[in-house]
Write a structure and sequence with these properties.
alpha/beta, Rossmann fold, five-stranded parallel sheet, four-stranded parallel sheet, 9 strands
Length: 311
């Protein structure tokens, strides 16, 4: 187990960890990236640790990435889906988790539609809690893997310009990325329709643009978010077609920029809406690198949080 520990026994959000924590996670992820690229991809680091994956919202990428990370570390894994559980019968979140903990679970990875659900659990149970996305609040592991992916292309975050483009209002990825990038010294701009930019977001130390060309000309990196129609209870723009026309990124736009920009996307991609296929599949895109790095970063987080602490 690591000699240096994270400053917290939980990962509830980027807001609650330090720059030193992020650096330690990245250094540990470097080692695990070597592990997952060798013929034998498994290490016994968490052989005696039991981890429960509690997903109260639909997920494919994040859930699979966590499960793969856990199995690469030789942990025992319990997968829980709210759609086929007693939650449908009215069981509370705390009862659900306490029942799982009675099975001697050491760590809980939770995705929940309610902002603050992971923090609520952290106050009531002894297990390590990892936030895999809570409502429109935070998605810390996505921000960490995004920053880890950017780190492979630049010598430093200090002064680096990152544009976050798309549905900022409903995105937990955007908030966690802002917190993470600002802690590392990067400059951040958000870009999207005025209706999808939260009021007073400038208070987080970011710039705001409503023009995609302006944002891309400014940026070294563009992290492009999907339109989260499932979270929208009213219409925030006239049509998907109009959004694609004014904020979609296509090859003609990218090739017309005065300098190259790295394209990222947390997935799933709405091809032809926020990104055209010829951009998503281009050399400028590091989207598949993000997927690979996600496993290494989550292995690092699980490994560091599982380290024993003196009470």
């Amino acid at each position: 187990m690591p000699e240096i520990l994270l400053s917290s026994k939980h990962l509830l959000g980027i807001k609650y960890i330090t720059e030193d924590d992020i650096s330690l996670i990245f250094q540990t992820a470097d080692n695990f990236k070597d592990v997952i690229n060798r013929p034998i991809k498994k290490v016994p680091s968490l052989r005696d640790v039991t981890i429960a994956n509690l997903f109260f919202e639909n997920s494919t990428r994040t859930r699979i990435s966590f499960e793969l990370a856990e199995k690469r570390l030789s942990a025992d894994v319990v997968n829980f889906s709210a759609s086929s559980s007693s939650v449908k019968k009215g069981e509370t979140l705390l009862d659900t988790v306490n029942n799982i903990l009675s099975m001697k679970v050491d760590m809980v990875v939770i995705r929940h539609p309610a902002p603050g659900a992971p923090a609520f659990l952290a106050e009531h149970i002894e297990a390590n809690i990892i936030n895999a996305g809570d409502g429109t609040h935070e998605h810390p592991t996505q921000a960490l893997l995004d920053a880890f992916s950017i780190r492979a292309h630049f010598d430093s975050f200090v002064g680096l310009r990152v544009a976050i483009v798309g549905d900022i209002l409903h995105s937990r990825v955007a908030l966690s990325n802002i917190f993470c990038l600002k802690k590392l010294g990067a400059e951040v701009m958000v870009c999207g329709p005025p209706t999808l930019i939260p009021k007073h977001i400038e208070a987080l130390g970011v710039e705001v643009s409503y023009n995609i060309r302006e944002a891309l000309e400014w940026a070294d990196v563009a992290n492009v978010l999907r339109i989260q129609l499932e979270r929208q209870d009213i219409k925030y723009f006239p049509s998907i077609r109009e959004y694609a026309k004014f904020f979609g990124i296509n090859r003609d736009l990218v090739e017309s920029l005065s300098s190259p920009v790295i394209i990222m996307h947390p997935g799933p991609i709405n091809r032809g809406v926020e990104l055209s296929s010829d951009v998503a599949d281009s050399d400028a895109a590091i989207i598949l690198d993000q997927v690979e790095n996600g496993v290494a970063v989550r292995m690092a987080i699980l490994y560091l949080l599982a380290a024993p602490r003196s009470s």
